[in-house]
Amino acid sequence: MHPLYRQRRGAVLLHPTSLPGPLPRGQICHDAYRFIEWLQECGIGVWQMLPLGPTHQDGSPYLALSAHAGDPTLISLDWLQDRHLLPERPAVTDYQTHQQQLEQAWKQFHHRKDRTLLSAWQAFVVNESDWLEDYSLFMAIREQQGQLPWHRWPVALRDRDNTALKLARETLVERIEFHRFCQFVFFQQWQDLKAYAEEREVLLFGDMPIYVSYDSADVWAQRELFTLDSQGNPQQVAGVPPDYFSDTGQRWGNPLYQWEIMAQDHFQWWQRRLQTQLQLFDIVRIDHFRGLQAYWSIPAEAETAIEGHWVDAPGAELLAALHTAFPDLPLVAEDLGMITEEVHALREAFDLPGMKILQFAFDGDPDNSYLPHQHEFRSLVYTGTHDNDTSLGWYRQLPAETQNYVLDYLGLETDREMPWPLIRSALASVSCLAVIPMQDLLSLDSEHRMNTPGTMEGNWQWRFDWEQLPADLSQKLRHLLHLYGRL
Asked: How much is the pTM?
């Protein structure tokens, strides 16, 4: 087991877009630094978040335009102003003005030629070239094509004809440079934030989706690695069969991997992807870990996930290659859903912690593996995840009989303080890391849910405000963390 998991810790789950701030979503701004200070004040050692990639219009961090790039909307303009790349400016409250300010900073960057920034820029462009060049070109062409997905571009651009790409690089050189600059700024800002967190003994915990978006620079640049036909159309797509969240399963629509081709160079594509994540985070969760043992393959023409079937995946070979490239990998397996003995065996073979969700625990079976008395040290316990309802909302929607079972298990006569008894149960668990969503710490109801799987509207929008934090919250958390050996 990685040394990170040999000490009991507490964590808070909060995506940066949920931070306060002037734009419709949070950023890597002063509020992010203030949040780290608040975590330190509470005695919380880990900040968990969702993927950081540039999103499509639906805002889902699990369907990003790149497996490597950071979301430019997270960039703080204050950081640019502090480095004299922006003058004094009016308050920016929309993304169109935000981008205009980024473009102004880019021009000022080239005009000023600050030695320190220029040296960092040159190193970044060289070190990240294997993904940065394709991504920047992809984004510039996408702009030129009215933000259409790549499979709807003119055939020569869609199929990466050499002549067409050469012309695009010449005619779109300024936009390509702008997108490179945005990534440079994002990574610089994130490294500053990560260093600030490290000084305050707060670890950053990221999330790596198992699949990448169909409309992404990664699929466009390396179509041979995905299950696409000669025109770039998916033949099979990813998802999961019917489960807790949906009677018809979930049809995610991501193209599946050509695992045989990926294995030929010892999974270099995965190694490079993980290398980027390890620059950003101290701990990385592999989302939908069960897909590394066997994945649900759905015919692309199918409307739901019901028509899919299981196909074996070379997870052991992949994880062996990753562990060879990166010794002591700080990985977590998201082992939720239809988990078989084979999936458990794969996780255990590589000594990876799994996840225990308290909202899944109370079905009346004392052998339910999510119940706290069934937990093991090599695991992470959550009251709920970003895909669950808030714990208060979850509890209120339970049948009365199940509510009574929850109270009985937790040793309560009343639910007046819910969700805090559930939080206390998570912190008391033997699991090495206890993760509490920010919504639960604020005792919020279903209106504050982050995501409802299988739906397209109203997700990824939740934010908190500093005024919502009770005055005694940090003291209360610190006491509980000390009480249960997680301080």
From this structure: 0.97
